[in-house]
Known about the structure:
The protein is of the alpha/beta class and 459 residues long. It contains 17 helices and nine strands. A hairpin with a 2-residue loop joins strand 7 and strand 8. The chain is globular, with a radius of gyration of 23 Å. The chain starts with 11 loop residues before the first helix and ends in an 8-residue tail after the last helix.
Amino acid sequence: MYMPLMQDQGPADHLAQLGPVLYTCAAHVTEGSFEKTDISLSQIKSLTSIVDGPLQRLSLIIADSLARRLLCPVQGFSGALIHPSDYFEQPILQTARCNLANLSPYISTGFATINRAILEAMENEKVVHIVDLSCSTSHPRQWIKLLREFHGRQGGPPEVRLTVVHDNNGFMADMRSLLSKEADMLKIPFQFNPVIGRLETLDFNNLRNTLNIKYGEAVAISCSLQMHRLLVVDDNMSCSGIGQLQKMANIAQLKKMASSVYSPTSTLNYPQTPSPQCQTPKLLASFLNAIRALKPNIMLVMEQDANHNALLFCDRFVEALNYYAALFDSLHAVAGANPQRADERARVERMILGEEIKNILVCEGVHRHERHERLSQWAMHMNRSGFDRVPLSFRAIWEGNQKLMSFGLNGCQNKVENDCLLLCWGSTHLYSISAWRPHKGSSSGSREHMLVQPQHQII
Length: 459
């Protein structure tokens, strides 16, 4: 299993045992054995009680997820399990969301890279409409910095319109107030347009009106850590013959990994199989078609770079174990350098990342919405939907790297792949940042054509 870069985890032999025990527990859960699972859960609890470290905290969350997965098929139990939205109060949950953006070096890096790409795409524009589809990842800090960059633009700032999609009215009101005050101080013409909701609940058949996009304005779209929620498909085949074969494959693979002697980093080399989708899911295709019709100057996408959308549970389990071990370790390092932020880190792990893990490991079919995919998969979806990749500029990558290095953590790394940016902790990919625009020959037409349309024409 992933070895944390900070060596404060306690006896190495106990850490080495955690991986096999977790794999064994997952195999017992897949078999449906309550007795064997109970033994494994007791072993996990014992191994994680030695010291409070990131790997131990992650293991407890995974153990809880495995216990829930075992209970879900039992009649009556599934409905009795409380959904996090029922026991997390909205203000506390919103605070945890903001804590993640403040703590994570990667989200700050994403904001810096995305802002530079928007500035470059809007270099000579007089009216700029930015659409923030990041929902729960939205943060006023990103757009305050962009307003300041526009203020310093040669030739003066443009008129800026910002549309934000979010599910929290209070957050939107605070964001409007902060950004409006900043724009007034900078003397930038500014309009804030809130859209209450989530990305997956928007009306893609009427997206122009929903987002209040006007003809003739330059449009930039930013979507951070949300598009994977549009990959939902009804892939639950547990009752079919294929489902039984998959269950057997899950058990065999997990037992093989549990019985092997793994070095702390060996599972990072576990073969990563892309998700088996042969076509873009309908919801994502509908969204991308609607975006393409808006003819944006640029679309920026930030996503978790992980294969959490595999059909086989064993593939998702191994991928989630390694991915979140690296992510927990990076946040542990941030809090280690800033001890006063330990409470923020704990809240993020429990309320944000912990719930992601539970969704990946417990839920199936349409109930599993944390379907993270790798950059190559996103490129496939974007290309199929009529988008061309826009290479991130040297300056955008450099500014992102400067932001990443400003946290002073040796484990933070970045690399360029196919003109996109990958953010890593050690050798583990955590996030990808890519830029896109509609293909010039697509049926959506060009922005130049849009500008000469009569104002009474409505699409």
